[in-house]
Amino acid sequence: MIRSTAALRPVLDAIAGGRRVALDTEFHSERHFYPRLMLVQLRVDDGPAWLIDPLGDIDLAPLGAALSAVPLLVHGGVMDLQILHREIGMRPLAVFDTQIAAGCVGDGFPVRLQELLRRHLDVLIAKTETLSDWSVRPLTADQLRYAADDVLLLGPLAAALEARLEATGNAALAAACTAEHVARALLPEDDATAWRPVPGAHLLDDRERAVLQALAAWRDGEARERDVTRSNVISDAMLLDLARRQPTTYETLRANRRMPSQVWKRDGAAVLACITAGRAAPPPPAPSSRSRLWKDLVMAAARTAEAERGFSPELVLTDATLDRLSHGQSIEPWRGEALGDQFAQFMSGKIGVRLPGNWTS
């Protein structure tokens, strides 16, 4: 355990002389807008596991600089990278993510570390501490063992997956996929797009969508400033209701009997102002109008391609990619290569797919 700035110096020296650093974090994502960092786990090459305590008397800024200068090894590391980027300024030089790599060799995505260790290394580890309280000190022996395992076993797992990637010829495509995930994780926040994940947003008309955009952007700003979850400000369901009803007075704002009193008492003026601004603003681009059946057919074709090429559709066909495909737009070259020529022929209507997974002419 590293609890002080002085004790961190040997870790920084080890990172500077290493080839690759296995990295993981423990954090609490409840009750706050940003997750709270509770522990950083590192392993440099084949060395010991270092458990760094951000709750101790420690300056982690030098760690951010050190980790930015060496390739990193993670598992499902998007959230870890986001947190460390925000907390200590880390910007990864290169990343190998074993969860993404597994999704590029036919293992599916996302698959838990515990399952991949069993499949590839025949190693069984206990994951009983996932939801334990990492804010309490001292940490228990079980917590310490759990945290250390997450980095001690990443190197051998990565070696097994790298061999599979080379054997399948998918290494370069997996690297492109990982680089895209990392770049997206480090993008600055854009409150203007906060409306898109709201369930039911795709069902709104242009004017309703513009109001929802204004309300969701306000909610993100408020939640960030108050350091609370979005739902603590106002729920998705209430946002959607307001976007549809578009009340203009306190009385009509309160017309939904499930509207929390804090919304109209504390935030009523701000909410009404957002609705007014949204009604006057140009609407954001509409999500794809393609039916659920269309998406299901495209995913079925991608699963047929997965059986041949190994790439999980969940990795390749993001919502943004499906939206572009629905509008007949091109996709990134690595995606096209990962899906293959037959998928492209399917999208152009030249061939079909017969379940459970065969191409048809």
List the keywords:
two-stranded antiparallel sheet, Nucleotidyltransferase, domain 5, flat, six-stranded mixed beta sheet, alpha/beta, 361 residues, 8 strands, 3 domains
Summarize, please:
This protein is of the alpha/beta class and 361 residues long.
In words, what does this structure look like?
The protein contains 19 helices and eight strands. The chain has 361 residues and is an alpha/beta fold. The protein has three domains: 2-185, Ribonuclease H-like superfamily/Ribonuclease H (Nucleotidyltransferase, domain 5), CATH 3.30.420; 197-280, Orthogonal Bundle (DNA polymerase, domain 1), CATH 1.10.150; 292-360.
Counting DSSP H or I runs of 4 or more residues, the number of helices is 19
Strand segment tally: 8
Look at the structure and give the CATH class of the largest domain. Alpha Beta
Percent strand: 5-15%
Largest sheet report: 6 strands, mixed
Q: Per the principal axes of the C-alpha atoms, what is the gross shape? A: flat
Number of domains: 3
